[in-house]
Specification:
This protein is α+β, with helices and mostly antiparallel strands and 394 residues long. The protein has eleven helices and twelve strands. The protein has a domain of 197 residues: Ribosomal Protein S5, domain 2 (2-Layer Sandwich), CATH 3.30.230. The protein binds alpha-D-galactopyranose. Alpha-D-galactopyranose binds next to helix 5.
Amino acid sequence: MPATSQDLTLDVIRERFQELFGHAPEIIVRAPGRVNLIGEHTDYNDGFVFPAAIDRHVLMAASRRNDPQIRAFSMNFQQASTFALDRIDRVAEGPERWSNYLRAVAWALQQEGLPVQGLNCVVQGNVPLGAGLSSSAAMLVAAGLLMTAATGIDVERVRLALIAQRAEREFVGVNVGIMDQFISALGQKDHALLIDTRALTCEAVPLPASGVRIVIADTNKKRGLVDSEYNTRRAECEQAVHLLRAYLPGITALRDVDAEALQRHARALPETVLRRARHVVTENARTLESVNALKAGDIARFGALMNASHESLKIDYEVSCSELDAMVDAARSVEGVYGARMTGAGFGGCTVSLVAAEAIETFLQVVPERYRQATGLQATIYVTAAAQGAERLL
Ligand code: GLA
């Protein structure tokens, strides 16, 4: 029987571990990246998101040490990094920066009062870096699963996601929502998860078993502004809530506002803040509607809502860019594409399209070519399937 690509990667990481540490690993875990189908920039507004885990992941192999140290090696960066668990520093710059994700999770576990054990560790991943497919969430969730497995603590998955989020916010220093960590920790094969980011609950919704594919297209545009603009958008959403509260005293987040109420109090908001709020409010409604459409088998409606999501992100939320718009246009020009939109934080990174299976070949021929004509850049296309969330493999 031919080995799957995951088996191959497992063999490679085992071998490398053996070479580096002179014994076999005791624990191996895997955590995936993600693609968000719809529900963008809603998670830090207590809203709804609808992502799927993808079949690209981070693998970590480890054995326990007798001293309180983590000795780690990244196969992607061909770089070792060692840190002591009683004084975890952040690497500000240089080739060991990848290890911040391990450091962050060890730190966050300690903050939560959980024990962390010394480890030898090898890390390898195939989630494209900086492409908006959550390679960082995959690293954090894998590290959390690895470190808790090593101490024999069974941390519930939502808590694992929250620990990974805390690590990213407070140690790495990026003020993210919960979507990426949640889907990496709880994703289900062949399903997308409708996540209520306020209740921290989810519903697994089956994706069409045949006939439709999820296609990710990387613009290969470096995501320059993303951190500062992300924080600005968060602040604008908070400002909207603050101003609307004078009229809608019960609200604590834009999740609590519907389109009609926003319209009624539009004059309370500066023009830009109103557009930001309108994106979030309409995106929450689109997300819920799209899930109903999917359940009813109405892929055309789902695709139309993806298209509307992109327009809203482009015009009202202003987190798209010319490369993302060009990729979306190229995708929509192919017959058999139900819908296409940017996915993730924006300002570069990837688009996601829902494509009829019989149109995939045309998509692969036409979209990179049209994108190259429009931008001069090379696209990278991944035809993907919804994968299982994080798991212990050994
Ligand atoms: C990034 C963040 C998520 C979410 C998206 C935008 O991926 O990590 O929490 O806010 O951007 O939807």
